[in-house]
Specification:
Elements (H helix, E strand, L loop, with lengths): L2 H9 L2 H6 L4 E4 L4 E4 L5 H11 L8 E4 L2 H4 L8 H9 L5 E6 L6 H4 L4 E6 L3 H10 L3 E2 L1 E2 L11 H8 L4 E2 L12 E4 L5 E3 L1
Parallel strand pairs: 1-8, 3-5, 4-9
Antiparallel strand pairs: 1-2, 2-7, 3-6, 4-5, 9-10
Helix pairs in contact: 1-7
Amino acid sequence: MTERSEAAVQRTGLAAYLKSGGLIAYPTESCYGLGCDPRNPRALKRLILLKGRDAAKGLLLIADHLKRLQPFIRPLRAADLARMQRSWPGPVTWVVPASNACPPLLTGGRPTIAVRVTAHPVAARLCRSLGMALVSTSANKSGNKPARTAAECRRIFGAQVRVIAGRIGPRRRPSTLIDLATGTVLRP
């Protein structure tokens, strides 16, 4: 996404679309992500239903900078923040304590939330131009392979999702998932 694309995001009303409960598909490090405004309960419910995802699994958030994730996480020790930031931006997702303000649909009812500062240029610029973190789950129906192109997203979701065109990154696997409290790698 170029600066011209960022201006187009604002002109096309993407921010208003998301605030009103809209869903988007956008390229990430390994596949297209399906996302929405993480503070909009209606959008979160729509996304979970559209995917056919078990709500107890929770969802993860991406952003272009840690500051956009901070409203969703509890304050962390400086050493923990430094450990996370050494892996960012990049395809490493951390499971951290969720703030009290974090919607239960994001956490799956658990006391934790999964967060990542993305290295993908389109996804990062999208967060920056919108001024917010985004929900990021693979763009697919649960149990199916994730979409790797904008055309696949349109075929799978039709008009239910606004597709942001772009190339996915070179990674073939989902982001590495690490539990901050234990250091356990939950997904390599």
